């Protein structure tokens, strides 16, 4: 099987810019060095806004249906793919972390990027009509500044509009039952999430992560329950499964090699583990997405 394409940020229109705006219909008709209707890994943040039509979009191997007023938040290093949906209209805002980080303080940037955290909330959001209309006005502002004006003030205006859009999305997700910035234990949960994403192939034991965080397993479980209403072990397992899926689709490694890479002493143990959480064998999953 061919390895999945890693897409780096590249702005051909403005090479020095870490932000770009793309029309969805135009993007789907572009001739690129990769097929965006195949799974591909992005190394930047994506905000997909659907203004008309219906269709599907896949993020980390989950297929989401969409219609008008749907938005998708796709963080860097996630795997996703587009579908050729003739009726779909909308925009894709893509940017590197530095686009906001270079002009806002660390706390504000940290808050803004929580909207992309798929453990905290679904990457799909359906907005109410009035709320979407307000957000769409900021997208129009970005479009005018980016495509028509382009003077010395434009990028600052675009950055401010994007910042407002992300905060509006945070508000909408909060109203849907997800609390972000003011929730107790959020900082600790995000630290645990980062540790698990970095070390899940080294250890899958809650106690090991509790020690790294200088707390007890009970406290770590309380942290996870407070933020995502899941046990710490469940969070670890979800992260491990996503990482294994990415290896299965992202590389040509054999199943045995992936098992050892993922920290299993026997390939059969990974087979049972993967089957338990996905109802599919590693081979079956790879074949389905090949």
Task: Please characterize this protein's 3D structure.
The structure is a single chain. The protein is of the alpha+beta class and 290 residues long. The chain has two domains: 5-175, Regulatory protein AraC (Jelly Rolls, Sandwich); 186-289, Homeodomain-like (Arc Repressor Mutant, subunit A, Orthogonal Bundle). 48% of the residues lie in helices and 17% in strands. It has helices at 24-28, 98-101, 106-113, 129-149, 154-175, 186-199, 206-212, 217-228, 232-250, 255-261, 267-278, 282-289; strands at residues 5-7, 19-23, 40-42, 45-52, 55-59, 62-66, 70-74, 79-82, 89-95, 124-126. A five-stranded mixed beta sheet has the order 1-3-8-5-6, with no helix packed on it. Strands 2-9-4-7-10 form a five-stranded antiparallel beta sheet. Strand 5 and strand 6 (62-66) form a beta hairpin. Helix 4 packs antiparallel against helix 5, helix 6 (186-199) crosses helix 8 (217-228) and helix 7 packs across helix 8. The longest helix has 22 residues, at 154-175. The mean pLDDT is 91.
Provide a quick synopsis of the model.
The chain is α+β, with helices and mostly antiparallel strands.
